């Protein structure tokens, strides 16, 4: 009791209350995923603070397993999750796309979220092959998970833009060397997360990050 009277007399209690409120307000700030990749700081021609321009995913044109044209414009204003695979892959692809299927089963019905799997072997993986692969995997047909093919040059350029290692390699199983990266892309075309599909901890991190990014996009669109 004496301690409380002393704090009131000295005006310390209001200061402590203010600090508590400040701490609470800081804790309520929503978490934001980082924007990955290069950035360019440009002078503002009108004066004021400089503008920071973040790298975006390279533009692409592809066709999905149902023969529909797919470009980056399809995902304007939406979030999408990608991986790179090939249908005859004897190594990591079954495990990788199995993990992506688990993510799809949990979040696949979320508005504004898409899944895109790019084949790195377009010479073999025709649309019919991709359609069969999707069906055997158990991916829903005519849904928001697209299995797509584009030219070989384009897909490797795109893989680099999505920070995914993928390249022809005669010494590698199946003739291609690649890793199991999932790349999470926001509504503005920025890469916001990279996850090793073969690491359960990182797949769990993806499951945690997805609603964070979706909430950010929803809030941004409400303000626009």
TrEMBL record:
Ranges for domain Thioredoxin: 51-222
Domain of life from the UniProt record: Bacteria
Record key words, sorted: Copper, Signal
PROSITE patterns assigned to the protein according to its UniProt record, in alphabetical order: PROKAR_LIPOPROTEIN, THIOREDOXIN_2
InterPro entries from the UniProt entry: SCO1/SenC (IPR003782), Thioredoxin-like_sf (IPR036249), Thioredoxin_domain (IPR013766)
Segment forming the signal sequence: 1-19
CDD domains hit by this protein: SCO
Family: Belongs to the SCO1/2 family.
Official protein name in the record: SCO family protein
């Amino acid at each position: 009791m004496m301690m409380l009277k002393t704090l009131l007399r000295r005006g310390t209690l209001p200061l402590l209350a203010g600090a508590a409120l400040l701490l609470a307000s800081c804790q309520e700030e929503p978490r934001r995923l980082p924007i990955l990749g290069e950035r360019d700081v440009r002078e503002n021609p009108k004066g004021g603070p400089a503008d920071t321009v973040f790298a975006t995913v390279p533009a692409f044109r592809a066709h999905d397993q149902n023969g529909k044209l797919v470009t980056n414009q399809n995902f304007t204003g939406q979030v999408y999750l990608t991986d790179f695979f090939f249908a005859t892959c004897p190594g990591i692809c079954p495990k990788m796309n199995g993990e992506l299927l688990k993510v799809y089963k949990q979040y696949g019905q979320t508005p504004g979220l898409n899944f895109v799997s790019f084949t790195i072997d377009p010479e073999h993986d025709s649309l019919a092959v991709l359609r069969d692969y999707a069906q055997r995997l158990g991916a829903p047909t005519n849904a928001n998970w697209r299995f797509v093919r584009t030219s070989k040059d384009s897909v490797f350029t795109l893989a680099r833009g999505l920070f995914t290692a993928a390249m022809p390699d005669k010494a590698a199983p199946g003739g291609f060397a690649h890793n199991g990266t999932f790349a999470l892309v926001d509504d503005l075309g920025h890469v916001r997360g990279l996850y090793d599909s073969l690491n359960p901890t990182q797949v769990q991190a993806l499951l945690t990050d997805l609603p964070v990014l979706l909430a950010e996009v929803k809030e941004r669109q409400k303000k626009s």
